[in-house]
Design goal:
Elements (H helix, E strand, L loop, with lengths): L1 H18 L3 E5 L6 H8 L8 E5 L1 E3 L9 H9 L4 E3 L7 H11 L6 E4 L17 E2 L4 E5 L5 E5 L1 H4 L4 E7 L4 H9 L13 E7 L1
Parallel strand pairs: 1-2, 1-5, 2-4, 5-9, 9-10
Antiparallel strand pairs: 3-8, 6-7, 7-8
Helix pairs in contact: 1-2, 2-3
């Protein structure tokens, strides 16, 4: 899956760079994409023209092992410009601050999907309370407070890529393909949506 995702990602970046000075890319947290980020870090890209954002973040200290920013930074490397959620601020202030740093819309948005169908920190049967049109807050099933990009903002992305891996994700992958009523099915790229799955 990682090699297929890498080829697609690099191709999209090059396409956008032909028409834009900077490319704005949102990255998923979790374990699944970390090997891909390590591979991407080795690519010869104009890193100074790429801006990376988080699709969601746990409201934990930035040096916490649970921090998406920390894990993405360690795998993507120091040369990547990563705009993060400042969890040292109060929750609402952190959401507003992050929202102000986001572009009007994303060029590429990479999302994972949980076994329950959640994507970013948009969970089934659990509200994500809007702080701004771009950013909302939710509480994960494990009780952790989350900051997430909103459905509205995710759906303004030019290209959305869903990446799923593992036999345990087969059922939710099939639900996503069929467009069943799960949070991930409510997110689509304005121009294109890709779904990449491997066992």
């Amino acid at each position: 899956m990682e090699e297929k995702l890498l080829r697609l990602f690099v191709r999209l970046i090059k396409i956008f760079l032909k028409n834009k000075e900077h490319v704005h890319i949102a990255l998923a947290g979790g374990k699944t994409p970390m090997p891909f980020y390590r591979m991407l870090s080795l690519e010869c890209l104009p890193w100074e023209r790429l801006y990376f954002y988080l699709t969601d973040e746990r409201f934990v200290p930035l040096n916490s092992p649970q921090s998406n920013y920390k894990n993405i930074r360690e795998n993507l490397g120091a040369k990547a410009k990563i705009i993060y959620v400042n969890t040292e601020l109060p929750l609402k202030d952190a959401c507003v601050d992050y929202s102000q740093k986001l572009p009007q819309s994303l060029d590429v948005c990479l999302l994972g999907v949980g076994e329950d169908g959640h994507t970013a920190s948009l969970f089934p049967n659990s509200p994500c309370f809007a702080i701004t049109p771009k950013v909302c807050t939710s509480v994960a099933p494990d009780g952790t407070q989350r900051v997430s990009l909103s459905y509205q903002y995710l759906n303004s992305s030019c290209v959305v890529i869903f990446a799923l891996k593992g036999e345990e994700k087969r059922k939710v992958y099939e639900k996503l393909l069929k467009g069943e009523d799960i949070p991930a099915s409510k997110v689509k790229g304005k121009r294109k949506t890709f779904i990449i799955y491997s066992t």
